[in-house]
Amino acid sequence: MRIVLGVSGGIAAYKAVHLLRLLREQGHQVDVVPTAASLEFVGAATWEAISSRPVTTGVFSRVDEVRHVRLGQQADLVVVAPATADLLARVRAGRADDLLTSTLLATQAPVILVPAMHTEMWGNPATAENVEVLRARGIEVMEPASGRLTGTDSGPGRLPEPEDIHRHLQAFLADPAPMSPAGASEPADHPVHDEPLRGRRVVVTAGGTREALDPVRFLGNRSSGRQGIALARAARQAGADVHLILGTLETEPPASDEGISLEHIESAQQLGAAVAEASAECDMLIMAAAVADFRPLTVGESKIKKTDDGQDPTITLTRNPDILAETVAARSRTGKGPTVIVGFAAETGDAEHDPVDLAGQKLQRKGCDLLVLNQVGTDLVFGREDTEVHILASQQSQQVLGAEPLTVAGSKTRAAQAVVAQASRLL
């Protein structure tokens, strides 16, 4: 999930460092947005070291990225801890005079403010009115803890402990409900349960495949594996028992404490064997891996060398098995296998066809229940943190989901949540 962690200028800013570490250990991408005053308590180097992300406070840094808008647009959740009395007042007034308040004004993601201030400031009628207005607008303002404050003072206004804040955030971090580009939840006639996949087994494939040319070289692709890993996490957060089959990655796999079982493969043939075994007893199969369509017909036993006569080697390719189509066919033939099968299509489009049209044709050929379209190319999807997907339903699935493709733009976490939610409704 993509989280913005705002930090305003209070002594409790040091506690936010531990909150950041807890969020990072859970696998979330966190952009820390401190106010200039907060850097008097905790420096930018600390935030950058732990988040592995750039840290700025003003709207005139990294202007080419339009960060004062993009951070809010791309966030799945915005948390401000500590939120000082001044920050609450500025948010209530709709101020946008630094990067944090601009982000809060631009986002459509859930916002949680965690106050920290002296007791007298928390109890002041102006602060109480600001909190009331913010809550009426749909912003969650947590109650502060009571205890030791700055100096010898004690009372309500203390920042809750990082572990308590983190536990409070779990309801947001584990919410599998998809969000539309406008930030609206699913229609009310399709209620979303907290764990719609509890008791279900889900198999997800992720990453790319490598097809050996010789002991040194291979044919591969640009897949990073980020989308497949996000899908596995979304299914796990929805309550499923998740088995993740991983090809080549350009990102870290889920940690051992995330409750996701891992299996590593390299080639398309290895992936096919792993899918056949793992999907035999599963409820849902999500084929997000970027599988090579072809492999070398022969693999050199030793490294292919340049010849003295200058002749170019000839490499003959042969088709790899169509794992998705074979899995659908096996289900039709035997009546066993995944109840819901989700395929992925990476399309560039061409002079005559729109990518969505090509994906619709692929959905009919493959026979899966859902097909997720990624429009790919240089600087599109592969390796990026953000994405845009179109979720197409088969004719049978349209009886539940409707005929129009669902388009989801934003982080790969948000896209994953939408795919998992749509597939869950088919169960």
TrEMBL record:
<feature type="binding site">
    <location>
        <position position="344"/>
    </location>
    <ligand>
        <name>CTP</name>
    </ligand>
</feature>
<keyword id="KW-0460">Magnesium</keyword>
<dbReference type="Pfam" id="PF04127">
    <property type="entry name" value="DFP"/>
</dbReference>
<comment type="pathway">
    <text>Cofactor biosynthesis; coenzyme A biosynthesis; CoA from (R)-pantothenate: step 3/5.</text>
</comment>
<comment type="function">
    <text>Catalyzes two steps in the biosynthesis of coenzyme A. In the first step cysteine is conjugated to 4'-phosphopantothenate to form 4-phosphopantothenoylcysteine, in the latter compound is decarboxylated to form 4'-phosphopantotheine.</text>
</comment>
<dbReference type="InterPro" id="IPR035929">
    <property type="entry name" value="CoaB-like_sf"/>
</dbReference>
<feature type="binding site">
    <location>
        <begin position="321"/>
        <end position="324"/>
    </location>
    <ligand>
        <name>CTP</name>
    </ligand>
</feature>
<comment type="similarity">
    <text>In the C-terminal section; belongs to the PPC synthetase family.</text>
</comment>
<feature type="binding site">
    <location>
        <position position="303"/>
    </location>
    <ligand>
        <name>CTP</name>
    </ligand>
</feature>
<keyword id="KW-0479">Metal-binding</keyword>
<feature type="binding site">
    <location>
        <position position="362"/>
    </location>
    <ligand>
        <name>CTP</name>
    </ligand>
</feature>
<keyword id="KW-0511">Multifunctional enzyme</keyword>
<dbReference type="InterPro" id="IPR036551">
    <property type="entry name" value="Flavin_trans-like"/>
</dbReference>
<feature type="binding site">
    <location>
        <position position="293"/>
    </location>
    <ligand>
        <name>CTP</name>
    </ligand>
</feature>
<feature type="region of interest" description="Phosphopantothenoylcysteine decarboxylase">
    <location>
        <begin position="1"/>
        <end position="201"/>
    </location>
</feature>
<comment type="pathway">
    <text>Cofactor biosynthesis; coenzyme A biosynthesis; CoA from (R)-pantothenate: step 2/5.</text>
</comment>
<comment type="function">
    <text>Catalyzes two sequential steps in the biosynthesis of coenzyme A. In the first step cysteine is conjugated to 4'-phosphopantothenate to form 4-phosphopantothenoylcysteine. In the second step the latter compound is decarboxylated to form 4'-phosphopantotheine.</text>
</comment>
<keyword id="KW-0456">Lyase</keyword>
<feature type="region of interest" description="Phosphopantothenate--cysteine ligase">
    <location>
        <begin position="202"/>
        <end position="427"/>
    </location>
</feature>
<keyword id="KW-0436">Ligase</keyword>
<feature type="domain" description="Flavoprotein">
    <location>
        <begin position="1"/>
        <end position="166"/>
    </location>
</feature>
<protein>
    <recommendedName>
        <fullName>Coenzyme A biosynthesis bifunctional protein CoaBC</fullName>
        <ecNumber>4.1.1.36</ecNumber>
        <ecNumber>6.3.2.5</ecNumber>
    </recommendedName>
</protein>
<dbReference type="Pfam" id="PF02441">
    <property type="entry name" value="Flavoprotein"/>
</dbReference>
<feature type="binding site">
    <location>
        <position position="366"/>
    </location>
    <ligand>
        <name>CTP</name>
    </ligand>
</feature>
<dbReference type="InterPro" id="IPR007085">
    <property type="entry name" value="DNA/pantothenate-metab_flavo_C"/>
</dbReference>
<feature type="domain" description="DNA/pantothenate metabolism flavoprotein C-terminal">
    <location>
        <begin position="197"/>
        <end position="421"/>
    </location>
</feature>
<dbReference type="GO" id="GO:0004633">
    <property type="term" value="F:phosphopantothenoylcysteine decarboxylase activity"/>
</dbReference>
<keyword id="KW-0210">Decarboxylase</keyword>
<dbReference type="GO" id="GO:0004632">
    <property type="term" value="F:phosphopantothenate--cysteine ligase activity"/>
</dbReference>
<keyword id="KW-0285">Flavoprotein</keyword>
<dbReference type="InterPro" id="IPR005252">
    <property type="entry name" value="CoaBC"/>
</dbReference>
<comment type="similarity">
    <text>In the N-terminal section; belongs to the HFCD (homo-oligomeric flavin containing Cys decarboxylase) superfamily.</text>
</comment>
<keyword id="KW-0288">FMN</keyword>
<dbReference type="InterPro" id="IPR003382">
    <property type="entry name" value="Flavoprotein"/>
</dbReference>
